[in-house]
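User: For a reading group we're discussing how well predicted structures match intuition. Take Mobile mystery protein B. Before you show the prediction, I'll give you the sequence so everyone sees exactly what went in.
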Amino acid sequence: MEIEYPEGATPLDPDEIGGLKHPHIETRGELDQLEQQNIQDGYQWLARQRKHKDFLTEAFLLDFHKHLFGAVWAWAGNFRRTDKNIGVDRFYIGIELRNLLNDARYWVEHDTYGREEFAARFHHRLVKIHLFPNGNGRHARIVTDVIMEKVLGVPPIEWGGNVLDKSGAHRQVYIQALRSADKNDYGPLIAFVSSNKET
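Assistant: Thanks. Here is the predicted 3D structure of Mobile mystery protein B, as structure tokens, for the group to look at:
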């Protein structure tokens, strides 16, 4: 299967593509539809969730990715095993994730950031680590909203839905904001989050 990737998306290597559980899929559109259905199943799992009491844990993040993408990809819920054009070295994924979760707990406990800045910083760090072969942006956006609702008790961000998963002006603004955050300039990403928040 040939996959066309939107700007900023990370290509899968042949072994990762081999993890597709539905070999009849031939187009990006078919794959998107299948993944979107699986994401809806992941939301339903989350609504029934009683196992995870602490959402700022590695176990929750991996389990949630598996429920969001596990009906499509065999490797869902597992750290990537290859290095990509973005993301930390694969051997440091676990360490960097623990650092982020520890930082996030501190931010929550000490009320370090307002709603929008917390969302921007947490989301960016999770995307930058790049835990998985695929689905990192979607997973990070959804997880950020889960943390905001279930840990901070504030409304989630309106990221732009499926528009961010396709090439276009909204995605370009988002990708540029993430690249600015890579340089420790969170202003554009905070502005993006603020302009797309739910009321």
